[in-house]
Design goal:
106 residues; Nuclear Transport Factor 2, Chain: A
């Protein structure tokens, strides 16, 4: 199974242990100028799971042994529809760095 399919399956089933197993010990998450360590990111993921977050219209954009990029759509708390692009850099088959870009769409 591809890394993308494995990761999305873990997210869809909210398999926290599987997700944690996909993460490199030196993981850093970047959102603009904000950065989070693995522990901080995992705590945020726990909170999203409590809110029953789901992906809509998810698409894999590109994947190889070094990178996995995908998009999905969501509507934020203000009612704005967003196209969300996630890029994960991989080392040793695990997510080493990750970043996200959110763009308002009509």
């Amino acid at each position: 199974m591809s890394f993308y399919n494995t990761a999305m399956n873990a997210l869809d089933t909210k398999d926290y242990q599987a997700i944690e197993g996909l993460m490199h010990e030196d993981f850093i998450w970047m959102n603009g100028y904000e950065m989070k360590t693995l522990d901080e990111w995992l705590e945020g993921l726990r909170e999203e799971f409590k809110k029953d977050f789901t992906f809509n219209e998810r698409t894999c954009l590109f994947e190889n042994e070094d990178i996995c990029a995908y998009q999905h759509f969501l509507t934020d708390e203000k009612g704005t529809r967003l196209r969300v692009t996630n890029v994960m850099l991989l080392q040793q088959g695990k997510v080493w760095r990750a970043t996200v870009n959110r763009v308002a769409v009509n």
